[in-house]
Amino acid sequence: MHAKLPPESLSCDVCVIGGGSAGLSAAAGAAQLGAKVVLIERGAMGGDCLNTGCVPSKSLIAAAHAAHVFTCAMALGVGDAIAPKIDFEAVHHHIHGVIGAIAPHDSVERFEGMGIKVIKEMARFTSPTELVAGRHRITARRFVVATGSRAVVPPVPGLRELDPLTNETIFDLIERPDHLLVVGGGPIGLEMAQAFRRLGSEVTIVDVAGILPRDEPEAVELIRGVLRDEGIVLHEQAKLIDPKRSEAGVSATIETAMNRYEITASHVLVAAGRKANVEDMGLELAGVKFGPKGIEVDGRLRTSNSRVFALGDVAGGPQFTHIAGYHAGIFIRNAMFGLPAKVDYSALPWVTYLDPEVAHVGLTEAEVRKAHGEVTVIVEHMDDNDRAQAERRTEGFIKLILTKRGKVLGATMVAPHAGEMISVWGLVISGKVKLADVASMIAPYPTLAEISKRAASAYFKPKLFGRLPKTWVGLVQRVLP
Ligand SMILES: Cc1cc2nc3c(=O)[nH]c(=O)nc-3n(C[C@H](O)[C@H](O)[C@H](O)COP(=O)(O)OP(=O)(O)OC[C@H]3O[C@@H](n4cnc5c(N)ncnc54)[C@H](O)[C@@H]3O)c2cc1C
Ligand SMILES: NC(=O)c1ccc[n+]([C@@H]2O[C@H](COP(=O)([O-])OP(=O)(O)OC[C@H]3O[C@@H](n4cnc5c(N)ncnc54)[C@H](O)[C@@H]3O)[C@@H](O)[C@H]2O)c1
């Protein structure tokens, strides 16, 4: 047995609460600039992204993709109509193997190697200038709250009593669900739905509104078709009623405006939005204001207590790992360099890792219309792309949203690897690359990425092949030998 250690008082430059994507990046940045840093994490280092979010979900999707390749190969003249054999326990090992391979990067040892004091405890403010974590009492010049978010169980009577799966438990399954009922058709719900379907589960999705609430309607329509073609049962504008335990696992009613469906499922996954982790940490005592969406921050990510910053999912804005890292950069510029850096989401990208991937950056058409009135929309379809034809993956498209004067404010791509191709449009939207540069680049043939050049060229086409250039060419041809 360990002897009880005595209380310890610590004072540091930066005290970070939360060892997820936001907290780890902020702590590493501050320490590498010479600050004395204390990092407090109550659970697993790496937070949601490594342990229960991006990494396990993308690993599961990779397994699902491998299984799906069998079912598509016949269209390319390869194989017989055989269903792949899924060893779900091996899929589970694969997922946790990937987490294990990345974990050293986020480990206590790595962060202690940077000179950071890591405390594995729950942190709680006791005043605007002090917090406690286990036996430690910590004062700091700056605090960072990066405590993340967790799944919300919607207030459907009976649902909580079923103890449904969430992102925190679904990757622990070692047996494949026979029938997964997914509550919520946002990115989490759909990524899981398609992956489990491809690994052989029956899947039903129920969404009280519509799927992919933040994406362009054309992208949503295409994905709806893909999911249904793969055999997923999708109920939108639908209510889940009276879910309860049954012999098969769970039974419930799903009600739409037109119909009522009685369904049974073996497992229920809740993916109906997130709630910021703001409870039980003395934010009131610290004078840090928060609301239903999370901690209230200004453009520089400062809270109502000027020595406390809030970063990542808890800060009530977009919830992505790349935003957590971006927030950490804003914190470093403000707190370490004394620069008044502010967040700018105008070129914010997001990707939903379905197949095909749905990638977006900047504003949607509806948002541009609302802000600017008239808009120019350019759409190019993947069936005009030779690589897409060669791979028989012609279902996607690119959509650019421009102001009437030709400024690109948003882009959506739906295609295999769309997430790998969207970044160029982030550069265009942020003004670092011109639309004309994309139109005139030499794109390797045949690549899916040629679609970007094609869309950019489409904007200039009417000007390039208009009356003026034709007249000019006519004149030049008369004088050329
Ligand atoms: C299934 C799923 C898939 C996802 N896929 C993607 C994706 O593909 N791409 C993407 O960009 N984003 C994805 N996300 C979102 C991404 O995971 C989050 O945006 C990101 O992890 C947020 O990082 P964070 O540091 O703000 O919070 P977290 O990673 O949640 O870290 C917060 C940490 O704080 C700790 N903590 C909380 N309270 C206290 C306390 N009082 N004291 C001490 N420690 C505390 C927690 O234990 C946790 O480790 C996904 C999320 C989920 C759930
Ligand atoms: N690829 C990625 O980058 C990725 C992947 C997964 C998650 N994430 C992040 O995680 C966040 C949360 O994802 P999410 O999918 O949980 O939430 P979400 O808010 O994006 O979607 C939730 C969905 O659940 C539905 N819903 C809400 N209450 C319901 C109810 N009672 N019954 C049925 N449906 C209901 C909503 O209509 C909505 O469509 C995302 O916003 C995103 O930032 C990102």
Automatic annotation (TrEMBL):
MF terms (GO), sorted A to Z: flavin adenine dinucleotide binding; NAD(P)H dehydrogenase (quinone) activity; oxidoreductase activity, acting on a sulfur group of donors, NAD(P) as acceptor
Superkingdom of origin organism: Bacteria
Residues at which NAD(+) binds: G184, G185, G186, P187, I188, G189, L190, E191, G273
UniProt binding sites for FAD: K58, T147, G148, S149, D313
Disulfide-bond pairs as recorded: C49-C54
Cofactor(s) required, per the database record: FAD
Residues in Pyridine nucleotide-disulphide oxidoreductase dimerisation domain copies: 349-455
Keywords: Disulfide bond, FAD, Flavoprotein, NAD, NADP, Nucleotide-binding, Oxidoreductase, Pyruvate, Redox-active center
Domain FAD/NAD(P)-binding: 13-327
Pfam families: Pyr_redox_2, Pyr_redox_dim
SUPFAM superfamilies in the record: FAD/NAD(P)-binding domain, FAD/NAD-linked reductases, dimerisation (C-terminal) domain
Record's cofactor remark: Binds 1 FAD per subunit.
Protein family (similarity comment): Belongs to the class-I pyridine nucleotide-disulfide oxidoreductase family.
Protein name, UniProt field: Pyruvate/2-oxoglutarate dehydrogenase complex dihydrolipoamide dehydrogenase (E3) component
Organism: Devosia subaequoris
